[in-house]
Design brief:
- The structure is a single chain.
- The chain has seven helices and 25 strands.
- The chain is an alpha+beta fold.
- It has a nine-stranded antiparallel beta sheet. An eight-stranded antiparallel beta sheet has the order 5-2-3-4-16-15-14-9.
- The model has no long low-confidence stretch (mean pLDDT 94).
């Protein structure tokens, strides 16, 4: 079996698919790519899996003499692809002896492939779903809607294994849009997007790994076919198919956490407050990262101190604030994450008192979207 493929396109595909493979696999066969050549379609399909997530990418090839399938070590193939010159290369595999050769102008690589029948995962997740006894639900979504939902919420996903329902992003699918939610109990982000109407109501919790893969691999102008079952979600475009298991359990009722009335509103230039928080945080106590805010008319004072190392920092920045004088504390690290996520020129911070959550929102939301970020305060004895 022989075929020709552009080396840069091959490496780009292999590199993207390889992100699915764990650094350590209980099944050593999962250290390999499953490569399938379709002579009729002149297409190379590359599959990688960690059993929880399966990613399939499709790539155009030429000069194909026959169809076939084989396994190749993922790391070795990626390393070779990275070093190949930007030319068309010929790949040949003896499907009986599994001898593999990659030819390029001036050189070649000789490798040993493996029998494809050893691979425990199908390269066509949708066919498996159709053959099963689950009742899948299908909905088309713009890739931009999915990517924006992930980009705005991923930073708030919990890392504590004690509450597995918080280890992913909630997709609260409504008939007229999707609400993406993530929380680690200290911060919560809710991003509502109504640029497309799914027409159904459903809830699912998408784990971090497939979320990151979708964020990296989807092009915002693509259309994505999403197929949902009770246990899994499959995302398909012309280039890729990603199938993953969903997180079991019920996500906490996020609606109850969002304060309904925070009467005091401060408006900041995003770049100014982000720069100030980063600068002052250098002297924060690394044990808790407490950063104190003191609001007064038209002014915000930011202060941190680390008594164990006798360090102290303070900075003042102007803001549009007409509430009562108030002191409140937040984690510096969380604030930086929030200000990096909010992308508008000006941002609003809504507060009530030092014991209630602060609400952070952009001054204006893009059409058909709404972003709200909640951050729990830290105890402040004095400024």
């Amino acid at each position: 079996m022989k075929f020709t493929v552009a080396s840069r396109a091959l490496y780009s595909t292999l590199s993207g698919v390889s992100k699915t493979i764990n650094s350590k696999n209980t099944l050593t066969v999962l250290d390999n790519f499953l490569l399938e050549v379709d002579a009729e379609k002149e297409q190379l399909t590359v599959t990688a899996s960690d059993t929880e997530n399966t990613l399939v990418a499709r790539l155009g090839i030429s000069n194909v003499d026959e169809s076939g399938r084989f396994l190749a070590n993922a790391k070795r193939l990626c390393d070779i692809g990275k070093e190949l010159p930007a030319v068309d290369v010929e790949i040949s595999v003896d499907l009986d002896s599994l001898a593999m050769q990659i030819d390029f102008p001036g050189g070649k690589f000789d490798l040993v492939a493996l029998d494809a029948d050893q691979y425990p995962v199908s390269s066509d997740p949708l066919k498996e779903i159709a053959a099963g006894d689950e009742s899948p639900v299908e909905l088309p979504l713009p890739a931009g809607m999915i990517v924006s939902g992930i980009e705005n919420t991923l930073f708030a996903v919990a890392t504590d294994q004690i509450r597995p329902q918080l280890l992913g992003i909630l997709w609260d699918i409504k008939k007229d849009g999707i609400i993406f939610v993530a929380t680690d109990t200290r911060k919560l982000v809710k991003y509502a997007n109504k640029t497309a109407a799914p027409g159904i109501e459903r809830r699912l919790i998408l784990p971090v790994k497939p979320s990151v893969l979708l964020k990296q691999l989807l092009a915002k102008e693509e259309e994505v076919k999403v197929v949902l079952t009770e246990k899994s979600a499959t995302f398909t475009t012309e280039r890729i198919t990603l199938s993953c298991r969903l997180i079991k359990g019920n996500f906490p009722p996020y609606e109850r956490v969002i304060p309904e009335n925070n009467p005091y509103v401060a408006t900041f230039d995003r770049e100014s407050i982000l720069t100030a928080v980063r600068r002052v945080s250098v002297c924060a106590d690394p044990a808790h990262g407490l950063m104190k805010f003191r609001f007064s008319h038209g002014l915000l004072e930011i202060k941190v101190d680390d008594t164990s190392h006798s360090t102290f920092a303070v900075e003042e920045i102007p803001c549009d604030y007409n509430g009562r004088d108030l002191v409140i504390g937040f984690s510096a690290g969380y604030l930086i994450e929030i200000f990096n996520t909010l992308s508008t020129e000006n941002i609003l911070m809504k507060i009530a008192d030092p014991s209630r959550p602060g609400v952070f929102v952009p001054e204006e939301n893009p059409e058909n979207t709404e972003l709200v970020i909640i951050l729990m305060p830290m105890t402040v004895q004095e400024f």
